[in-house]
Amino acid sequence: MANITIEGRIATHDAKPFRGRIDIDEKTGLISSVAQAAKRGGRPAAHVYGDECLIFAGFGDVHIHAREDDTGKQNYKEEYATAANAALGGGVVHVCAMPNTPNPVVGKSQFAWHRSRVGTLRHAVSILNYVGIDAKTKPLGKPGEHMYKLYFGKSVGTLTVTYAGELDEILSRYKGHNISFHVEYEPIVQAHAHGKTHTERRPAECVNEGLRLLLPLIEKHGIRAKLCHWSTGGESFEMIAEYRARGCDIVLEVSPLHLLFDTSMTDQDPSLWLKIQMNPAVQSPEHRRALIRALKEGFIQFLATDHAPHTVEEKHSAFAKFRQPEHARALKGMRVHAMGNKELAEAVRAKDEALFLETCCENNQSGAPWLDTYGLVCAWLINEHGFTPQEVARAAAFNPGRFVNAHLKRQFPRTNFGKGFGEVKKGFMGSLTVLNVKKKTRITRDMLKTKVGWSALEGRIMPGAVEAVFIRGKR
């Protein structure tokens, strides 16, 4: 049996890093052995990494938007192939795609189309699919067979449940199922529609009230719940802790955007909204610090990007108003109808900085691409916030692996994943992420693989680098 051998500091969720050797079976792509480097003889390792690097089980992102579906309407933003390429660049080896595409993934026919498309693609990154829930849907199988997503509050797309009454009726059909929730109470969002900034339009209150209504229903119907892209600490954490203590199965995601940005930054530079507007919105520095602490301590289980590609033009959509006669006066003498949104923004800025910044705060398209920078965010957590390698391994590899492993056989019926993703142990996938925690990376547009070609971190120097990614032992 031929093996590929990788040597270096191995980082796992349950032990301090140790210098070891990983043998991966070339035929199966599964790990055949892991041992301390000093205790192994034989031929030299094919790949050797110094102590500046950490070798993790391949990172997984349980919340992305790939945009592609049978309509092709949003393929200009992202496709499965470009999302998977961005994932590889960020050190991510498996992803889970959300169902709110133009033709939502809510039934067997839509789900079959996406699984066929992923199968045809045969990309090195393993892509799994969620199934959407709305007022008309029913489970596609028994509890545990599928990953579901329910939007309790409107975001991007048509899948929305607005009121607790209809939510109760819907969840009664999904007793015991795995459901990921977007939580923002829509009536509060609507009541704040005229807020100056996105945070004022989507305050912490809309998340907390949505949670207050949702938690009793999770308990009532025995839902295995994952709360997506969590944005608030304090009161919401207290409610979640209470229901966990009562036996409810509730886990949490946090996005890089909510870990890296807060309202003190947008107050200082309102133009940041053009990059970081997201549903739910960023909140105060106190909330951001609480999220970082909760991820470190394990109260939050997943680092999940909510990779949501929108074009630069879409992110500047508020500037489209300057084509209208009542606003075009600000750009008198310019051919505003021939200008794109970004070009309009640049023209407004040149004429009137205050008006530009004011418009930046208006409602643009929510969402940002993050897959390209996943590994860099992990290195940032280690270097800037004192995360141990174990804590990063737990949130970026082990927990995502456990989440997807139960669905691999159903979504990839002809593929051998062994024991799956998430651990550097015999029988698990020989898919690994190597982080260099000493090297720095300046994020530039030419390094990005996402189809929309931009990043909220563009120009920023991050304290780390993705040194290598292995898929089934192949670099």
TrEMBL record:
Q: Which Gene3D superfamilies match?
A: Metal-dependent hydrolases
> Quick check: keyword Hydrolase in the entry?
yes
Query: What's an example of a GO molecular-function annotation for this chain?
Result: allantoinase activity
One GO BP annotation is:
purine nucleobase catabolic process
Look up the record and name the cofactor or cofactors this protein needs. Zn(2+)
Q: Which GO terms describe its cellular component?
A: cytoplasm
Keyword Hydrolase in the entry? The reply is yes
- What keywords does the record list, in alphabetical order? Hydrolase, Metal-binding
The Swiss-Prot or TrEMBL record describes its family as follows:
Belongs to the metallo-dependent hydrolases superfamily. DHOase family. Class I DHOase subfamily.
Official protein name in the record: Amidohydrolase
Q: Which organism is it from?
A: Candidatus Kaiserbacteria bacterium CG10_big_fil_rev_8_21_14_0_10_59_10
